[in-house]
Design goal:
Helix content: 25-40%
Structural class: alpha+beta
Radius of gyration: 28 Å
CATH class of the largest domain: Alpha Beta
Number of helices: 12
CATH topology of the largest domain: DNA Polymerase III, Chain A, domain 2
Number of strands: 20
CATH superfamily of the largest domain: DNA Polymerase III, subunit A, domain 2
Shape: elongated
Strand content: 15-25%
């Protein structure tokens, strides 16, 4: 690189647009030839060159050595070409897939959505987009899709047929899209992401459960297999197809009133107005079929004040693990479980534990458990409204994990003054929670059903 070019690079880094113009004039011819040699379309090559030059101008501050400007610019151009080919492969894969049936079973590696597919999906009607997302992206059958959307299977088939034709047409005719989609997030959206991070699994063998699903229509979903959080995000309401974020930590989400989500080809970045933020990789789906796991809420409805319920959960906490030692004992474990007790006669919800409650034998040959110290029990309660459980009915009783219960109440209580719980006496049923007319929902599963 000659002295003039080093001078232009230094000037461009300092903000001199004329100097950058000289660099563009010098490097554009050979860069265009490099791009055109790998593409068949002159128009696409011109567009990619312009995108690369714009990206270079925006990232000049990253260039530490002015003499390496040429190789640095070349790496940006090569990356633009690689991303174009990757999007094109995804597009062709989807076009091929849309022409074949049945297509409910999808290779997991093919479900990473390119931006071109997201933009094409966004152009469909809501009804057509729903069937495509459920059938192609989530892997549901015709019947399961019909049940979830509350329509007949013939309607699902008809909508899929029309949606395939429309989606293929959009993808074939679409101009080269932006490589990033942008969403404006507010306090509620950011809080939802932080709460979801706490609900994701920590088990390294369960990659998909360690992630957070940003579902089509703006729902933030996270589950560890024992609890599930379903949080409506207004800022993501226009999201046309699911995106699965890995390695999301609550402390990495900006603690601000607003931020921007940049959803790209392989990663998502959340930035605050001040420029701080975090980047998370996108992983292939589909996400776990959480709609089927949620099931139907039970017929017993309990409404409690969110602060009162939180006080009960907090008050009983000191009586959990710290009061249940297993020193010198093998073959047993302790789970911080409380008995949930709902009385229609007293209109009261109670949480109860005791010295002996929460232990489970984990080895068949383990000796019987002998606990030392005085026998004790503790309970705390709050007033409730209750439907579906009359004064004559036996109280509802179930064992629930205290830590899971606490995380759910803590996540939901900011969404409304009252939390609704829906219960079912059936074994292996879940305990459903919601606030704000269902804008925030949670599921605790499974409960330990107790005989009256």
């Amino acid at each position: 690189m000659d002295r003039n070019e080093i001078k232009w690079v230094s000037g461009a880094i300092a903000g001199d647009t004329d100097a950058f113009g000289m660099l563009v004039a010098t490097h554009s011819p050979w860069l265009f030839a490099r791009i055109a040699s790998r593409l068949r379309s002159r128009e696409v090559a011109e567009d990619l060159l312009q995108d690369a030059l714009l990206a270079a101008f925006e990232r000049l501050g990253e260039l530490r050595d002015p003499s390496s400007f040429g190789p640095w610019l070349c790496s940006i151009v090569d990356n633009k070409v690689r991303m174009w080919h990757r999007r094109r492969i995804v597009q062709l894969s989807w076009l091929e897939r849309l022409g074949a049936e049945p297509a409910a079973q999808i290779d997991r590696e093919e479900t990473r959505l390119g931006v071109v597919v997201r933009e094409a999906l966004a152009r469909l009607t809501q009804a057509h987009r729903d069937v495509v997302v459920h059938y192609y992206l989530k892997g549901y059958t015709y019947q399961q899709t019909a049940d979830l959307l509350e329509v007949g299977t013939d309607v699902v088939r008809s909508r899929l047929q029309k949606a395939r034709r429309r989606l293929a047409k959009e993808m074939e005719e679409m101009a080269e899209p932006s490589s990033v989609h942008t969403y404006d997030l507010g306090v509620e959206d950011l809080e939802g992401l932080r709460c979801a991070a706490a609900f994701a699994s920590v088990d390294p063998s369960r990659e998909i459960l360690r992630a957070i699903c940003l579902d089509a229509g703006g729902r933030i979903i996270a589950t560890d297999g024992s609890r599930l959080l379903d949080w409506m995000s207004p800022g993501l309401a226009s999201l046309a197809a699911p995106a699965i974020l890995a390695e999301v930590r609550a402390d990495a989400i900006p603690d601000t009133d607003r931020a921007t989500l940049l959803l790209g080809e392989e990663e998502a970045t959340i930035k605050s107005p001040e420029g701080s933020g975090a980047t998370f990789p996108l992983i292939p789906g589909p996400y776990v079929p959480y709609e089927k796991a949620v099931g139907t809420p039970g017929p017993i409805e309990v409404i409690a004040g969110s602060e009162e319920l939180m006080s009960c959960v907090d008050e009983i906490e000191p009586f959990m693990a710290s009061r249940h030692g297993l020193e010198g004992t093998s073959g047993w474990n302790y789970t911080p479980r409380v008995e949930l007790h709902v009385s229609g006669l007293e209109r009261k919800l109670s949480l109860r534990t005791s010295r002996d409650y929460g232990y489970a034998r984990v080895e068949d040959e383990a000796a019987d458990l002998t606990l030392s110290g005085p026998d004790w029990d503790y309970s705390v309660g709050c007033a409730i409204e209750v439907k579906g459980l009359s004064e004559e009915d036996a109280p509802f009783r179930a064992g629930v994990n205290h830590d899971f219960l606490r995380s759910i109440v803590a996540a939901l209580k900011s969404g409304g003054a009252r939390i609704r719980m829906r219960l079912d006496h059936q074994r292996k049923s879940g305990l459903h929670f919601d606030v704000g007319d269902g804008a925030r929902r949670a599921l605790l599963m499974p409960m330990v059903w107790l005989d009256a």
